[in-house]
Amino acid sequence: MDASDWDARYAATDLVWSVEPNRFVAEIFSDLSPGAVLDVAAGEGRNAIWLAEQDWHVMASDYSVVAVERMRTLATKRLGDDSGRLTAVVSDATQAAPRPAGPGATGEYDAVLFCYLQLPLPERAEAWRRGVEALRPGGRLVVVGHAGRNLTEGHGGPSSRDVLYDPDEVIAEVAGLPVDVVDAGVRDRPVPTADGERVALDIVVVLRRR
């Protein structure tokens, strides 16, 4: 799907995604000290807005104009006087990352988040590289995505293996970049359906910039 496809999908409904943050994003970032974070392919901002509520200064990017406009509206409603903690911009994940905004911005991020950025190679590897480049030394790159094995063993997510990936693939794709692996694995994510609860398989990879 390109940007116009996503524009049409977002425009067709009031809210495509849940307003709650992804469970793994909330788990990981709850253990980190708030700073400057870049949320790439942020969609309507469910993770970005939650991060701002946790005192992070958030730069949230997406290549859908409709998604970014909706994120700005939702952030104003949810954050009120603290809406300045979140800056939403139109940007492509494979291009140079937008610079941090907010008080004390240094030009580098303390964390970069990719949550369900389902791109094929080589675009996916280029997005990881751009994310690493945007981090300060010691900063975290967090990847949450639909696992490759979800196609046959899990529930939901894209139907093309080309845009799915397992932890070992992400680690191979960042080989040569100045990062160390903090955590990498496949996790269960319960999904309620009309036929009862199903289980989706997500990958969670956390990298630390050297």
UniProtKB/TrEMBL annotation:
<dbReference type="InterPro" id="IPR041698">
    <property type="entry name" value="Methyltransf_25"/>
</dbReference>
<dbReference type="GO" id="GO:0032259">
    <property type="term" value="P:methylation"/>
</dbReference>
<keyword id="KW-0489">Methyltransferase</keyword>
<dbReference type="GO" id="GO:0008168">
    <property type="term" value="F:methyltransferase activity"/>
</dbReference>
<protein>
    <submittedName>
        <fullName>Methyltransferase family protein</fullName>
    </submittedName>
</protein>
<dbReference type="InterPro" id="IPR029063">
    <property type="entry name" value="SAM-dependent_MTases_sf"/>
</dbReference>
<feature type="domain" description="Methyltransferase">
    <location>
        <begin position="37"/>
        <end position="139"/>
    </location>
</feature>
<dbReference type="Pfam" id="PF13649">
    <property type="entry name" value="Methyltransf_25"/>
</dbReference>
<keyword id="KW-0808">Transferase</keyword>
